[in-house]
Amino acid sequence: MRDGATGRMRPVDDGPHAARHEAAHVPPRTASPELKFEQVPFDHPLWVLYSSGTTGLPKAIVHGHGGILLEQLKKSWLHLDLRRGDRMFWFTTTGWMMWNFLIGALFTDAAIVLYDGSPGYPDMGALWRLAEQTGMTCMGVSAGWLGACAKTEVEPVRDYNLRALRAIGSTGSPLAPESYHWVHDRVGSGVWLFSTSGGTDVCTAFVGGCPLLPVYEGELQCRGLGCAVEAWDESGHSVVDEVGELVLTQPLPSMPLYFWGEDPPERDGPAHDPEDRVGERYRESYFAMYPGVWRHGDWVRITPRGGAVIYGRSDSTINRQGVRMGTSEIYRAAGAVEEVIDALVVDVPRPDREAELWMILFVVLGEGVMLDDELRARIARRIREDCSPRHVPNEILQIEQVPRTLSGKVLEVPIKKILMGAPPHEAASADSLVDPSALDYFVELSKTLG
Q1: Is 434 exposed, middle or buried (0-12, 13-18, 19+ CB in 10 A)?
Q2: 45-226+252-265, which class in CATH?
Q3: What class has domain 313-449?
């Protein structure tokens, strides 16, 4: 039994009454069922994961045994450098691919830490306390959560014993340069901070961290091993130090086998709609823009030193005067205004406006704060100074909450579709949202936009 004082195991009392006590309270042992191991092909279906729904209705993605196994081994052993004695954690729901990623860490000699609860309850110190209590060595969180910590009075290095913590990973959205400074100053200069970006589509990261490389603020350290990642312009030319579409020029082992509902080639798949052509949505999702080349839908810049900077979804970027801009830059500037807690930006056509699209910035403000002309002017000025005059929105509106998926991602494309008149159930899946009622405001606003 476990000693309450020391936490160590100690033998139970084996005195004269021990046998009777055991017989009275312990049920008889039953034989454990025999484990059976089935040999399956490398591309045998393993699981179905659903995309987050940030660009529309979620996709039901079927992955294979072999490809996922290779990716999990590579990421855990080499990119995360997990070893015996490590305790790995990533805050995630069970419906997000990061849950599968976390479980994959068990392929190494490390242990994993699970958490059931809110990362902000009862306060923003919840996960830092968890790190202290569990002796966590690798802590995975979201970029938004790190940004929220920086806006509170939490002081991890002062308030918690984090001597075991050697790495912090971030994903879900681009990690702002300010968060790099905050972790360095408030968590520890010796903590390895790495940002990573990939997708449920491949259940891994295209670009991310490497324990052997230096860390530069605002930059993902490298492309993943075996990931032929490039930035391509609209003509399909590879560019360096310029923003372009994130593409894979060579196959990745964990690319999907097929989408559930579409039969895979030369394999008896699940029942599908006879009106669907085999693999049609798969091809449209990844290979429509550049035939034979995987286009993921992220906007990326490959730096001359081989790192990467993610600017958000390429299909939700803002087009102003012929210049495409990443939404992450706008969020970073707006979030630098103290009163702004969260934000969402889209550009939509206006029947009553000629020329360019109408750009609207929606902001969630701190408790009790109301959006007035003075605050609008400060937000616009900050965006103008930090980004450019082109980035300044035509309109700034206050909302109660930003619509997000269960994995915390902002619904930019679905909101744009709703504002352009699409029915909510066609633009987004209610089951994939934290709060489906968050769409109601935009449905009403779409009526005023015409």
Answers
A1: middle
A2: alpha beta
A3: alpha beta
